[in-house]
Amino acid sequence: MTRRVAVIGGGSSGLACIKCCLDEGLEPVCFESSDDIGGLWRFKENPEPDRASIYHSVIINTSKEMMCFSDFSIPAHFPNYMHNALIMDYFKMYADHFQLTKHIRFNTKVLQIKQKSDFSHSGQWVVETESKNGKKDRHIFDAVMICIGHHCQPNFPLHDFPGIDTFKGKYFHSRDYKAPEEWRDKKVIVIGIGNSGGDIAVELSRVTKQLYLSTRRGAWIFNRVGDNGMPMDLFFNRMLNNIQKILPFGLFNSIGEGRLNRRFDHSLYNLKPKHRLFSQHPTVNDELPNRILSGTVQVKPNIRRFCGSSVEFDDGSVVEDIDLVVFATGYTFSFPFLASQVVSVSKNKASLFKYVFPPELERPTLAIIGLVQPLGAIMPISEMQARWATRVFKGCVKLPSLAAMQNDIQNKKDAMAKRYVTTQRHTIQVDYISYMDEIAEQVGVRPNILKLLLTDPRVGLSLLFGPCTPYQFRLSGPGKWAGARQAILTQWERVAHPMQTRPCDQPEPKRSRKWPLVLSVAAMGLAVYAYRDNLQALLQDPTTLLDRIKALLPTK
Fold first, then answer.
1. What is the mean pLDDT of residues 211-238?
2. What pLDDT is recorded for position 48?
3. Residues 219-226, mean pLDDT to the nearest whole number
4. pLDDT value, residue 353
5. Which residues pair with 124 in a beta bridge?
6. Residues 229, 269: contact at Cβ < 8 Å?
7. What is the pLDDT of residues 128-164, one digit of tens each?
8. Picking from 267-271, 444-448, 523-527, 540-544, which range would have the lowest pLDDT averaged per residue?
9. What are the pLDDT digits (tens) for 42-81?
10. Nearest to 366 by CA among 124, 149, 28
C-alpha cells in the first residue's frame, strides 16, 4: 500500500517535497492556502495574513546556477540574478515538467496537525483542513512535511522605540512595502540593514528627498558582481570551504574583510560593524555604497526616540519632518497548527535534528523542510532535506538514537552561539556547502571528490575548484540523474549566455614570433649536440644539416 504524505505549503520547498515523494513512490497531497504556487516569490499587491510578501522589484541574491533544483537547470537565457517574476516562471516550468500541480489542493488552509491515537504504532497523523468556501475536512496521512518557511510573522518591535505612538508620519513593516513612487520628495527612515532593508533603502533613495538608513550594528556588504563580472556566489567553492576549515576563524575573517574594504572602506562609509565578517548573515547590495557616496542615503545609528515628526538617534542627532519609517526588522517563525509538544518554538529556536526532524517523536514521520538561513541558496537545501526525509519515511534510511540526535542539536547550538552575534536572526544559520554535504551523506549522494579526480578528472576538478552547484549531488546514489555530469560541464556556458546580447568584435590576437624562434634555436642546439662527433662533416654539407634540423622542429 502506497504511503500518503501531507505537504504543507506550495512554495519552492513544497514543490521539491512533492517531487521527492513521487521519486520515492510515495503519494503526496499538498495543501496550499493561496490560489497558486511560489510562496515567498509570488508578488501580490496586498499581503495576505500569515504569509510572506515581497515588493515589486525584488531580485534574488543567489545566482541561477546555485539556486536551481538539482535535476532541472534554469534556462540558459535567463539572467544570472533573476527578478521574482522569472523565478515564478522557473517554478512553473519545474511543476509542469514533473507534473506536480495535480497533487496540490489550492485555497486550502491547514487548521491542525496532530498525532493519531495509535501514533506509537502507526506513525500516522490527522490533518484538519478548511477550504475557501469554509468546508472542513479530516485526513489521515502516513507522514507530514511542513514547508511554510520562516518569513511568515513580521517581527515588529515597536516597544523598542519610545514615542512611536506620537509619530505623525506613517510606519509599516517591510513586508507591506511595494513600490517607491508614493514617497517621492519625502523624508524616509529605513530601520535595519539586512537584505530587505538595504534594497528598500536604495530603491526609495532614488525618489525621496532624503533617505536615512538606521542600523544598530552596521554590516559587511557583499555585492552580487564578483571578480571579472561573474556572479559572486560562484566563487564559494569546495577548495575555499576547505581553506576556511583549516585557517583560524579570525584570520579567515580578516582576509574576507580586507577584500570587502578594498571595494569601499566600511569605516569611512559608517557601515563597519563590531562583529566579524562571518559572524552575521551577510548583506548583499551592489548599489548601497554608490547611494551613500552620492548623499541620497545617510547611515545613522539606532533610533533613541520618536517625538511627533522628529526622530532622535543614539548619537544625539535629530532629523525633522520624517514622513515614513520602514521597519525592515525581520520575521519570526512558528507552527500554530502543531501542538507545542511536537515542535516547540521559543525566540525563533526549534530543537530539530539537523534542522529537519523532531528528535523525540516515537516515529520519524514528521519533517520540517526549509527552516534554515543558509549562506547560499535555500532551494537546493530544501530539496536535499526532502530527499533525506522521504528516504526516512520509506525506511531506507534510519535516524540515530535519541541521545545522538540531541547531542548533534546541542553541538550546533553551541557552534552557532560561538560564531554568530546573538540575535533571533541567527538561530537557523547554516553554511551552504558544509550543510549540503552533511545531509547528502545521510542520503548517500555526497560526491566522492577523490574518486572523481582519479576516474573523471574533468568533473572532479570542476567539483573541487568550481562552484558547488546542485547537480553534483545527482552524480551517484539514490536519485542519480543521467544529465548531472553534462550540467556540471556546461554550467559556465549558461552563466555567460544571457550576457551575450550583441556581437563583440575583438581583434584577432597577433601571433607571437617569440616561441617559434625559441623552439627553432632549441632545435638547432639539440641537433648540434646530437651530431657533435660529425660536426665538421655536417658543416661541409649544409644541406644535410638543414634537413636534420627540420626533422627536429615541431610540425604545424
1. 95
2. 80
3. 95
4. 97
5. none
6. no
7. 999 999 999 999 999 999 999 888 788 999 999 999 9
8. 523-527
9. 999 888 877 778 999 999 999 999 999 999 999 999 999 9
10. 124
> If you search the block for the grid coordinates 512554495, which residue do you land on?
11
Q: How many residues does the chain have?
A: 556
Q: Which of 174-188, 374-388, 495-509 has the lowest mean pLDDT?
A: 495-509
CB-based contacts of 118-126 (< 8 A; 24+ apart in sequence): 119/362, 119/363, 120/362, 120/363, 122/363, 123/362, 123/363, 123/364, 123/365, 124/365, 125/6, 125/365, 125/366
Q: Amino acid identity, residue 509? A: P
Query: How large a percentage of the chain has pLDDT more than 70?
Result: 90
**pLDDT per residue as tens digits for the range 402-434:** 999 999 999 999 998 888 887 766 778 899 999
Strand segments (E) across 161-218: 170-173, 187-191, 210-214
Q: How many CB atoms lie within 10 A of CB 206?
A: 12
Q: How many CB atoms lie within 10 A of CB 424?
A: 14
Amino acid at 351: S
CA dist 526 → 29, 88, 553 (Å): 77, 66, 10
The continuous run of DSSP H or E covering 145 comes out as: strand 143-146
The dihedral built from the CA positions of residue 21, 22, 25 and 26, taken in this order, carries a sign that is positive
Element (H, E) at 4: strand 4-8
Cell of 271: 557601515
Work out the angle between the directed axes of helices 12-23 and 379-394 (0-180°, nearest 10): 40
Three-class DSSP labels, 211-252: EEEECCCCCCEECCECHHHCEHHHHCEHHHHHHHHHCCHHHH
Phi first, then psi, for residue 129 (nearest 5°) are -130, 165
Which amino acid type is present at position 111?
Answer: L
Characterize the bridge pairing of strands 27-31 and 104-105: parallel
Cα-only R_g, the chain: 29
Does residue 281 contact residue 194 with C-beta atoms inside 8 Å? Answer: yes
DSSP-assigned states of every residue in 469-517: -GGGGGSSSTT--TTHHHHHHTHHHHHHGGG--S----PPPPPPSHHHH
3-state DSSP call for residue 137? Answer: strand
CB burial of 59-80 (b: ≥16 within 10 Å; e: otherwise) equals: ebbbbbbbbbbbbbbbeeebeb
Instruction: Find the helix or strand (DSSP H, E) in which 345 lies.
Output: strand 345-346
Nearest to 362 by CA among 395, 407, 402: 402
d(CA 62, CA 234) in angstroms, rounded, equals 9
294-333 exposure pattern, b = at least 16 Cβ within 10 A, e = fewer: eebbbbbbebbebeeebbbbeeeeebeebbbbbbbbbbeb
The CA-to-CA distance between both ends of the chain, in Å, stands at 68
**Do residues 196 and 332 lie in contact, with contact meaning Cβ atoms separated by under 8 Å?**
no
